[in-house]
Amino acid sequence: MASITIRNLDDKVKARLRVRAARHGRSMEEEVRSILTETLATEQAQPDNLVGAIQELFEPLGGVDLPEVPREPIREPEDFGLET
User: What does pTM read for this prediction?
Assistant: First the structure.
């Protein structure tokens, strides 16, 4: 198993952690392990792209059907008379 060291932990955070651990009947180390395990187990996967994020947002609402937008060919760039 791996181990980590947490440096520069704010004193108030450490005090709150100590209280929380005592409330759960655990050591501070056990409490941190529990917090990390629970948090990472329930973490939702992030979409890889904007389309995935939008789909994930609207899927619970039943989705949204949008009309298809016709595409036009790409037009030629403007010639401003500049030499290249």
Answer: 0.52
Which DSSP letter does residue 12 get? H
Closest among 48, 50, 17 to 34, alpha carbons compared:
17
Calpha distance 80→82 (Å, rounded): 6
Task: Phi first, then psi: give them for residue 52, nearest 5 degrees.
Answer: -60, -40
Q: Which residue has the tokens 């904007």?
A: 50
Number of domains in the chain: 1
Specify the pLDDT at position 25.
96
- What digits encode the pLDDT tens for the residues 26-58? 999 999 999 999 888 877 777 678 888 888 888
Whether 16 maps to a domain, the answer reads: yes
- Helix or strand run (H / E) with residue 67: none
Expressed as residue numbers, the domain containing 42 is 11-61
